C-alpha cells in the first residue's frame, strides 16, 4: 500500500479532476456555441424544465448551488436572449417567477444531445461509471459539509443534499424527449 505524504495524492487527484472537468466543459461550450447558449444556461433550462417550467430565482440558486447574485446575472442574460421571462407575482411583494419560453424549450431540446459527452465517457464500462458516480457523490457531499462548516451562510447540507440526491428531478429523458 502506498503511503500518502502531506496530502500530495489528494492534491494530484484534485488537479486531475479539475483538468478533466475543464476539458469536458470546453467541449460542452464548443458544442453549445452553435446554438448561442452557454453550458450554465442549458443547466438552468434543465432545472427549470424539471421543476415544471417555472420557479423562483432562489429555488434555481439552490438547485444549481450558485449564489443568488450569480443566478441573477445569468437570468438577466437569458431573458435578453429570450430563453426565459421573469415576472413579479401580483400579491404586492417583490417575489419573481422565472418561466421558460418557447425559445428556451427549443434550446433545452437542442442542448440535450451531448454527443461530446457520450464520446468522452465511452471509455468507461457501466460498472466503472457507477463507481465514478458513487465516488463523486461522496466527495460532493463531503464538500457540502465542509462548505457549511466554513461558511455559515451557505445552505444547510441537509437541504442541498435533498436537491442533489433527488435524482428524479434530473431525469430529463422523460421530460424532454417525450
Describe the structure.
The protein has 178 residues and is mostly helical. The protein is built from nine helices and three strands; from the N terminus they run ααβααββααααα. Helix 1 (8-33) packs antiparallel against helix 6, helix 2 (39-50) packs across helix 5 (102-111) and helix 3 (57-64) packs across helix 4. It starts with 7 loop residues before the first helix and ends with a helix. Strand 2 (84-88) and strand 3 form a beta hairpin. It has a three-stranded antiparallel sheet. The radius of gyration is 18 Å and the shape is globular. It has a single domain, classed as Winged helix-like DNA-binding domain superfamily/Winged helix DNA-binding domain (Arc Repressor Mutant, subunit A, Orthogonal Bundle), CATH 1.10.10.
Number of domains: 1
Rg computed from alpha carbons, rounded to a whole number of angstroms: 18 Å
Distance between the termini: 50 Å
* DSSP E strands, number: 3
**What is the class in the CATH system?**
Mainly Alpha
Question: How do the helices and strands follow one another from N- to C-terminus?
Answer: HHEHHEEHHHHH
Basic shape: globular
Query: How would you name the CATH homologous superfamily?
Result: Winged helix-like DNA-binding domain superfamily/Winged helix DNA-binding domain
Percent range for helical residues? 55-70%
Reported by name, the CATH topology is Arc Repressor Mutant, subunit A
Give the mean pLDDT: 80
Enumerate how many helices there are, as a single number: 9
Amino acid at each position: 500500500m502506498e503511503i500518502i505524504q502531506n496530502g500530495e495524492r489528494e492534491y494530484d487527484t484534485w488537479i486531475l479532476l479539475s483538468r478533466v472537468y475543464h476539458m469536458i466543459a470546453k467541449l460542452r461550450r464548443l458544442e453549445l456555441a452553435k446554438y448561442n447558449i452557454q453550458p450554465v444556461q442549458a443547466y438552468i433550462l434543465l432545472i427549470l424544465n424539471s421543476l415544471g417550467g417555472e420557479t423562483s430565482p432562489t429555488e434555481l440558486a439552490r438547485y444549481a448551488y450558485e449564489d443568488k447574485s450569480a443566478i441573477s446575472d445569468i437570468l438577466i442574460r437569458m431573458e435578453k436572449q429570450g430563453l426565459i421571462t421573469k415576472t413579479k407575482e401580483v400579491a404586492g411583494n417583490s417575489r419573481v417567477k422565472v418561466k421558460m419560453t418557447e425559445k428556451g424549450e427549443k434550446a433545452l431540446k437542442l442542448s440535450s444531445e451531448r454527443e461530446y459527452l457520450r464520446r468522452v465517457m465511452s471509455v468507461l464500462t457501466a460498472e466503472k461509471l457507477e463507481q465514478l458516480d458513487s465516488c463523486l457523490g461522496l466527495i460532493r457531499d463531503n464538500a457540502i459539509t465542509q462548505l457549511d462548516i466554513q461558511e455559515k451562510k451557505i445552505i444547510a447540507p441537509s437541504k442541498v443534499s435533498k436537491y442533489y440526491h433527488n435524482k428524479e428531478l434530473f431525469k430529463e429523458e422523460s421530460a424532454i424527449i417525450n
